[in-house]
Amino acid sequence: MNAPSTGPMLRALPAEHRQRLMRIAREVSFPQGARLFEEDGSADRFWVIRTGTVDLDMRVPGRRPAVLETLGLNELVGWSWLFAPHTWHLGAEATSPVRAYEFDAAAVRGMCREDPAFGLAVAEWIGGILAHRLRSARARLLDLYAPHSGVGFL
User: Which of 58, 68, 92, 106 is geometrically suited to a Cys-Cys bond with 36, CB 3.0 to 4.6 A?
Assistant: First the structure.
């Protein structure tokens, strides 16, 4: 069986590491409304979206989950699998029908341990995504809470 083709998300990995990772990819689909994972659950897999959208959310006591970000084409869903204790920090729900590449987290962590160069490439890939999402979250928070007038205080 040939490895599936990759989009820009996985192209952040060097070609040899991307090909190695894609050899264990499994094509999956989720209907709209499906929960991919729940906050504090076991982070045992991750996905790269091929089609559709997924909301990342967090529990808010007494309210519906708060949506923090919507992910789409070629974006990574899930990073908690890489870091102990391997539990989800957020929840995720398909907001449209989703097709994705699914990866077994334990298998990828094993590949990282066996091949330090591969492990470093994966860690840098995930780290870059986390840095981008942190900057995006910061910008959203500033939009929500920063003063909106150009007038300063005396």
Answer: 92
Which residues, 6 or more positions from 108, have their beta carbon under 8 angstroms from its beta carbon? 21, 24, 46, 81, 122
Question: What are the structure tokens assigned to 116, written together?
Answer: 């330090």
User: Which residue range is the domain that position 125 belongs to?
Assistant: 14-145
In a domain, 43, yes or no: yes
What is the CA angle 94-3-130, rounded to 5? 45
Structural domain contains residue 99: yes
Q: What CATH number is associated with residue 133?
A: 2.60.120.10
pLDDT band at 140 (very low <50, low <70, confident <90, very high): confident
Only one residue has tokens 């029908």, namely 97
CB 98 within 8 A of CB 54: yes
* 150 part of a folded domain: no
Distance from C-alpha of 19 to C-alpha of 70, rounded to nearest angstrom? 27
Tens digit of each residue's pLDDT (9 = 90 or more) over 8-66: 667 788 899 999 999 999 999 999 999 999 999 999 999 999 999 999 999 989 998 88
Does residue 3 form part of some domain? no
